[in-house]
Amino acid sequence: MPVISAKRMQDRHDSILGAAREAFAQRGFEGTSIADIARAAGVSDGLVYRYFQNKRDLLNAVLTEFYERTMVDLEAIAAREAPFEVRLHGIIHRHIEAFVLEADACRLFISEVRTAADYQGSAVQQLNRRYTSILVRIIESGIAKGVVRSDIDIRLVRDVIFGAIEHRTWAAVNGRPLDIDATAAGLVQLLRFGLMARPEGEA
């Protein structure tokens, strides 16, 4: 039997993963079969199982790819030598952008994965925690520098930010337009000033 090169194996893996990504986006997790994915990738059903344990493993791999790619950008924003508000805006803007530009992955996570019985304790949940922890670190750095209240409930702020973004962008995930810049700026301003009217003359 001929030996398959590492590059050929990686190409097959990537082809199957790409086919799964598209199939899940078009048909949803439950509506997609391994046979659908194999056919789209141009391989046999059995070959799919050589690279992935099952359909759930494929879904997790699709979301892992999304998370890891997006976290590279978020970590770069968090590491900037920039004022707290600039980094906060950057994180919020990139998160909204992810929902809009990678709507299929976000739709899969919200509707197919987070509600699944096996989500708690899963690898995808751990990735989500790593993802949200980047925002938490930025808030902690703001507290350390004295620009954020020290008595703030960081987890509450995290939930407010991600919850607001998810709610506001769900329409975009389903195809309706959303102004990313305006949404990010508006959320940052709301966090900065709250609901109370600003004193006259305050910028």
Describe this structure in words.
This protein is mostly helical and 203 residues long. It has 2 domains: 1-52, Homeodomain-like (Arc Repressor Mutant, subunit A), CATH 1.10.10; 53-193, Tetracycline Repressor, domain 2 (Orthogonal Bundle). It has 9 helices and no strands. The chain is elongated. The N and C termini lie far apart (72 Å).
Count every helix, treating DSSP H or I runs of 4 or more residues as helices: 9
* Series of secondary-structure elements, N-terminal to C-terminal: HHHHHHHHH
Number of strands: 0
How big a fraction of the residues is strand? under 5%
CATH topology of the largest domain: Tetracycline Repressor, domain 2
CATH superfamily of the largest domain: Tetracycline Repressor, domain 2
Largest sheet: none
Rg is 20 Å
Question: What's the quick description here?
Answer:
The protein is mainly alpha-helical and 203 residues long. The protein has 9 helices and no strands.
Keywords, separated by commas or semicolons:
Tetracycline Repressor, domain 2; mainly alpha; elongated; DNA-bd_HTH_TetR-type_CS; KstR2_TetR_C
Explain the layout of strands and helices.
Blueprint: H1 6-27, H2 34-41, H3 45-51, H4 55-78, H5 84-101, H6 103-113, H7 123-144, H8 154-173, H9 180-193
Helix pairs in contact: 1-2, 1-4, 1-6, 4-5, 4-7, 5-6, 5-7, 5-8, 5-9, 7-8
Protein name: TetR/AcrR family transcriptional regulator
DNA-binding region: 33-52
Keywords: DNA-binding, Transcription, Transcription regulation
